[in-house]
Amino acid sequence: MPEAMLERVKTQPKKKSEFLRVLKQLSYNKMAMLGLVIFVTELILVLLAPLIAPYNYTAMDTAAIREAPSLTHWFGTDDLGRDILSRILYGGRFSLTMGIFSIMISATYGAVIGSIAGYFGGRVDNVIMRLLDIIQSLPGMLLTIVISTVLGAGYLNTILALSVNGIPGQARMLRAQMMKNRGAEYVEAAQSINCSKARIIASHLFPNSFSPLIVQMTMGVANMILMASSLSFIGLGVQPPQPEWGAMLSGARQFIRSSPHMVIFPGLAIAITILALNLMGDGLRDALDPKLKK
Amino acid sequence: MSAPVIEVKGLKKYFPTPRGLLHAVDDVTLKIEKGSTLGVVGESGCGKSTLGRTIIHLLERTDGKIYLNGNDISDLKGKKLKAAREKMQIIFQDPYSSIDPRKTVEATICEPLKVAKKYSRQEIAKISEELMDLVGIDQRLRVSYPHELDGGRRQRVGIARALALNPDFVVCDEPVSALDVSIQAQVLNLLKDLQEKRGLTYLFVTHNLSVVRHISDQICVMYLGQVVELCPTKELFERPLHPYTKALLSAIPSTDIHHPNKPEILEGELTSPINPKPGCRFAARCKYEAAVCAEPQKQEEIAPGHFVRCCRIREIHEK
């Protein structure tokens, strides 16, 4: 009899991996797949920039300054005669990675801080939230400027500065979710079967609370890209001559009437990225919720 | 005779509120013998659920003593509390909210075993399989998520989780009131079967008098945090003593069209449970109210095994 039972255990349907399940769910959502395809394509393009970029991003063509799009320069050239298509491809390396890494760092810290504040509540919550209030009471831009000035300009320091600025928002989001869920009966049930606090947070509350965080993260990437651009504009952030979408945009600002293509193409790059991320975020939220499973 | 599985003496649970202390459970004394069921009835907000949760230490008690198998577990902390909790489990009212929506049936049932850290993976697989057979969940539902199951099946998952650690004592907190009537009977019978198979002791919280009559050996009637009457089921339905119990029982609709019962309508409103006066809590609605009712009331044994909290009980019944 026990052997027959063990046999039955072996032939049980296997639980599919969570990642595959989410991916499968996501594939039902056409808009989300569109977002995913655009974003992955962008990542591949910027990764392969040295292979596919028609020119070097610093190469100046003095004969063709601020030239409109043509067959030689698909996206036209900028005020120094550099090929805009090449600069967008190389610039994406900075813009996209700065956005992604800074949001990942801030979401990780924000999630831990927010979980603790939301679950324990009371004094712990009060202390943590007041500290976050201090960070948030400074205008975000000012805070990033201060941090990157102190740390010095540069790619990694910009990511750090952006991350610190993003932590309070992520923490607040997760804290609110945690507070909403911690009164649920399944939490009480978990207590009654002797789950530790850490297990309740990590294994019960977090999985039920983090899907809004995913959505906020994807939108956050867009925001971080814009912030990074602003930093580049005032001379912090990524340093010229290295291209960066925001910096290209602000550099082209003064030529917006005579050579609109200088603004349009980097602007489009940012807009398309943000759109793709938002579509993905929405789809992910649905895919992560087992209740909406088709 | 062995010690009762659960014994509670003068248990109190007060919640602080902005307007004062809310006396959710006040001076409750009761015993539950091994293998028996104590039904707890009373209207909404009378502290039935709070009583159950306080006994199994899901809520911290304000005062009083709790004994499990004769051992004082009132002040246990840390490892000893965990060990005691394994012997006391709870089945919740709403199977839609008491099961983590992101865990599969298997994960939910296995979790208590994993947390206990006493079992190998093979043992966990074997025990969970037995549990699923025991409560009647099909093995093919192993990897299903709770939202894919109906209410009755979900409640079975909740029951399996509560029984995973092989407890002695289970608090059933209105386990059937959220279910369809057709499924209620199935779950009730399952609970009865399990009691026989595993020698379980139940504290069965409900507001449904027919259910409590079906399942309980003893019944405890609560009113505003206090036990007003506690006696064997048969006796309670045949010979209710306390005026509140009488009013409560008269509210059961009769199925006999020729002898419809006339419910005794209670006048007045529930007294507030926040900072109540020391006297009888039911006095304001009781037709036998007298000056002595303003004195604090004691739980008295009127007949063997029949406890009533009413100072005028003998006077009323002599008439």
Question: How does this structure look, described?
Answer:
The complex is a heterodimer of chains A (294) and B (319). Chain A has 294 residues and is mostly helical. Chain A has a single domain, classed as Orthogonal Bundle (MetI-like fold). Helices cover 73% and strands 0% of the residues of chain A. Chain A is built from 13 helices and no strands. In chain A, α3 packs across α5 and α11 runs antiparallel to α13. Chain B has 319 residues and is α/β, with parallel strands linked by helices. Chain B has two domains: 234 residues, Rossmann fold (3-Layer(aba) Sandwich); 68 residues, no CATH class. In chain B, the strands form two sheets. In chain B, strands 6-7-8-3-9-10-12-11 form an eight-stranded mixed β-sheet, sandwiched between helices. In chain B, strands 2-1-4-5 form a four-stranded antiparallel β-sheet. In chain B, β4 and β5 form a beta hairpin. Chain B is globular and about 65 Å long. The relative contact order of chain B is 0.15. Classes of the chains: A mainly alpha (294), B alpha/beta (319). The interface between A and B is medium-sized, with 29 and 40 residues.
Secondary structure: elements and pairs:
The complex is a heterodimer of chains A (294) and B (319).
Chain A: H1 2-10, H2 18-28, H3 30-47, H4 49-52, H5 84-120, H6 122-137, H7 140-151, H8 155-182, H9 185-192, H10 197-209, H11 211-233, H12 245-252, H13 261-288
Helix pairs in contact in A: 2-13, 3-5, 3-13, 5-6, 5-8, 5-11, 5-13, 6-8, 7-8, 8-10, 8-11, 9-10, 11-12, 11-13, 12-13
Chain B: E1 6-17, E2 20-32, E3 37-41, H1 48-55, E4 63-68, E5 71-72, H2 78-86, E6 88-91, H3 105-116, H4 121-135, H5 151-163, E7 169-173, H6 181-198, E8 201-205, H7 209-215, E9 218-223, E10 226-232, H8 233-238, H9 243-250, E11 300-303, E12 306-308, H10 313-318
Helix pairs in contact in B: 3-4, 3-5, 4-5, 5-6
Give the count of structural domains of chain B: 2
Residue windows where pLDDT falls under 50 for at least 5 positions of chain B: none
Number of helices of chain B: 10
CATH architectural name of chain A: Orthogonal Bundle
**Arithmetic mean pLDDT of chain A:** 84
Would you list the SSEs of chain B in sequence order as H and E? EEEHEEHEHHHEHEHEEHHEEH
Please outline the major beta sheet of chain B.
8 strands, mixed
Under CATH at level 1, the class of the largest domain in chain B stands as: Alpha Beta
Give the overall form of chain B. globular
Content-based structural category of chain B: alpha/beta
CATH superfamily annotation of chain A: MetI-like
The general outline of chain A is: elongated
Name of the CATH class of chain A: Mainly Alpha
Enter the CATH topology name of the largest domain in chain B.
Rossmann fold
Strand content of chain B: 15-25%
The count of DSSP E runs of length 2 or more, i.e. the number of strands of chain B, is 12
